[in-house]
Specification:
The protein is mainly beta. It contains one helix and twelve strands, in the order H-E-E-E-E-E-E-E-E-E-E-E-E. It has one helix at about 5-20; strands spanning about 30, 35, 40-50, 55-65, 70-75, 80-95, 95-110, 125-130, 135-140, 140-145, 150-155, 170-175. The strands form three sheets. It has a five-stranded antiparallel β-sheet, with no helix packed on it. A hairpin with a 3-residue loop joins strand 10 and strand 11 (about 150-155). It starts with a helix and ends in a 10-residue tail after the last strand.
């Protein structure tokens, strides 16, 4: 990755984190790192800071945005994993193989009531994937199912809207251009 791109990512990350200091704490599920380089490996950490009212979270399901490739979840003790795959409309090549299906949803489910994320606690649900080659914003719909109730963080802004205009926004990731040929990173 070129030094100029690294500096741009660092500057963007700094401004995002600095602006978060002046904004009230959000109640929705967000990504820890909200920028990535086009074509690079990206670690998506979904921050879950509450349940549904006082009800604990028993399941978190993340839809993988179009263009994100090869998603792999991080297991969590006390939680089962379900990885849903689907056929691709347009196969792609990876490591000399033709990829004809890819991950479209990852779901973590608490094994027991004791394993659920209590509403007064915080946790992260993590996966890695390769970012799209083209710059722009991708949105990650997240469904949070609680012992009682649910929160669907799935809204995507329309033209003229921002995430702050939405009641239940999807987690947003800004894909930055690489400034040249994309590096293949792991």
């Amino acid at each position: 990755m070129k030094t100029k791109t690294i500096k741009k990512i660092a500057a963007t990350a700094f401004w995002i984190s600095a602006s978060a200091t002046f904004v009230p704490a959000s109640a929705h599920v967000v990504l820890e790192y909200q920028v990535a380089s086009a074509g690079a490996s990206y670690k998506a950490s979904f921050k879950v800071g509450h349940g549904c009212g006082a009800s604990p979270t028993r399941q978190v399901a993340v839809d993988i945005p179009a263009g994100m490739r090869g998603a792999r979840p991080m297991p969590k003790p006390g939680w089962t994993l379900d990885v849903q795959r689907d056929k691709l409309a347009q196969p792609y090549a990876s490591h000399g193989r033709s990829i004809t299906e890819d991950v479209v949803r990852i779901t973590w489910t608490a094994k027991t009531p004791e394993d659920m994320l209590q509403s007064t606690h915080y946790d992260e649900f993590v996966l890695v994937a390769q970012a799209p080659e083209q710059a722009g914003t991708v949105y990650w719909p997240v469904r949070q199912v609680c012992a009682e109730g649910r929160n669907d963080w799935t809204e995507v802004p329309r033209a003229g809207q921002t995430l702050s205009d939405l009641k239940s926004p999807a987690a947003a990731l800004e894909i930055l251009p690489t400034g040249g040929a994309a590096a293949h990173n792991h």
